[in-house]
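Two proteins were folded this term; both appear here.
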Amino acid sequence: MIPFKKVLVVIFAFILVGELNSGLPAKQSAKYAISVLPTPVLNTPDFPAVFGEKDGSTLRLDEKNRIKELELICFPKTVFKIEEIIEKNGRIIYKVTTGDYPYPTNKGYFIDSRFVKIVEIQPPERHKKLPLKLTIIQNLLSAEGSNYVWGGNYKDGVPQMLSFYKPTSSLPVAAAKVRDKWMLKGVDSSGLLYYATNGYTPRNSSSLVSYGNPVRIAGLKVDEIIQKVQPLDIIVWIGHTSVILNLYSSRHKDIECVIESRIDYDKHKEGFQGGVRIRPLKEVLVEIMEMRIPVDNYDQKLEGEKKKFVIRRWYE
């Protein structure tokens, strides 16, 4: 007869092996998290390498000064399903999925555990309420002059990044834009609209090209297109989004304008360039139509290497 204590030891061993093989402790295998702060989502679990690198004070940037690992910044109360728990340099990183960012990935999506709280039972998804039209326009205008940040959708950034991933040495005054980028202060093109609508609209341009209803612009010239648009219509193709406004000011003379975040403003200058600017709609359309053809449906096939754009009306 096998002693009772030995049976317990064997059972415990089987449970322990099962936990290790699952990637999550058994008690945590179905846990969820809710963001309590604006929460950066990366496509790598290696946060310390992105924010610090080997010397602890270097941002991992590509040749265009972008943090390509940043996918988005989730709003507070975003719900995440935890797929895996990873320990990285003493920090706990969660591999997650979320209904707020339903895009397929081969790399996975990752968040730092300090931005969220754990819950045992799946909570309801973050409530999304479309702001009033005037509020959206005010939010857009408030972002004018903000930095361009790949994956960014918080114009004021996430200050906690400077404490959670504190640079090992002080950043010089001349590196103010490095500090801004470290805290993800700024927006990209679709992130500008996402910020202005409090995360109501789709986050990526790949979804915005079919969002709302089409403005029929196929075959039209610039002046004809201008006659058909309304404030908050978006000019979009996969890779870029602009928002149409109607402004009155001494600068813009009550004309249709476009607000957009671009990385290539003043690209001939040194340092970090780009950001959110307002320009006349006609100027923007002329520039776009030098390289792209207006279509009604982004799925429309074009001959050869021709590129396209659409205008979508999502706020009626």
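Next, the second protein.
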Amino acid sequence: MKNSKGLVKLQKPLIKWTGGKFKEFKEFKSFVPNFDRYIEPFFGGGGVFFALNPKCNSFANDKSTDLINFYNQIGNINFRTELYKFIEVWDLIKKFSLITNSEILMIYDEYYNNVIEKDDVPYLVRAVVLTHIDNHEYEKLFDNEFLIDFDNFVSEIVKNLISKINRIANISKKEQRNFNKEELGNHIETAYKSGFYIHFRTLMNKIRKCELTNISNEKFLAIWYIVRELCYGSMFRFNKSGEFNIPYGGIAYNKKNLKQKVDAIFSEGTINLFSKTKFFNLDFEDFINEIKPISSDFMFIDPPYDSIFSEYDQNSFSRDDQIRLANLLFKSDAKWMLVIKNTEFIYNLYNKKGMKINSFEKVYTYNVRGRNSRNAKHLIIRNF
């Protein structure tokens, strides 16, 4: 693929995944050797895979069952259909927000100016939403077959609108700040889209816990993908009950071009790239033993970091796992390269005879639970 200047344009990963190395590829691409087969035991978003665009047979593995199921659905017409339903509805939410905007703003103004009581807001907001539901133009937005739980969807929309009205009013009074109509309109759209997101996040959690059945695999994975795209920072975090609990990305996410992202999933480039790729959902050691890498193979290793917080999509990775990985790599005949954040433990683990170690600096965009400093040194470790 080439851009308007005739330069080769790298195909981006289909999904953002914690620890992805697509942007960092330039730091270590010069070390990549020639190879006959490409092997990746910790695939995630596949940043290096997409940057390399291997033309040979490739083998990709990840412990996340949902992620591998997602990749295996590429090319599935039913999965494509389910995803494009979300694209259509995502656009309808903005339109629905616009037609109710003046009425919601009137409720806000009356509440802010003490014309109505706080207890009046829920009833009035719900009435506005329900008044426009029967509009034929928004039939697909409120289709129960798509929503699965119509009542919960409406409830989340109303709940988020009420919360937004209260929050903006409180900020305005506390900071003596007047929001203009455009700002208020953007906040109303955010409330609608947050309600949409939380509704499907709830469904995803229920399906995971088997509280909601008879949902097709394609439908679940479409929900899973949309939730991942719209959650704040594309992070994935679960509470003690095993429920995913990251909030909506916020006002900046309102303009997300989901169609462009979904188009990329089913593009000719993606289909061609994946045509020679086989996916696995195994422990990394089982995967490597299954593939049996040889000297003409190249393995790119991007494991979870050595930190207190080393759990991705509910899969933990301990220091014992780091040692198990290192011992497996030391015995491998394949050329391999590992890129990982530097810690004393990791450096000592790989600082052995025959290993080559380089480094580069990485700046983190997000700092989840303090697990990353804004700047961190990363090691490039290889056996060739």
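The mean pLDDT is 93. The radius of gyration is 24 Å. These notes refer to the second protein only.
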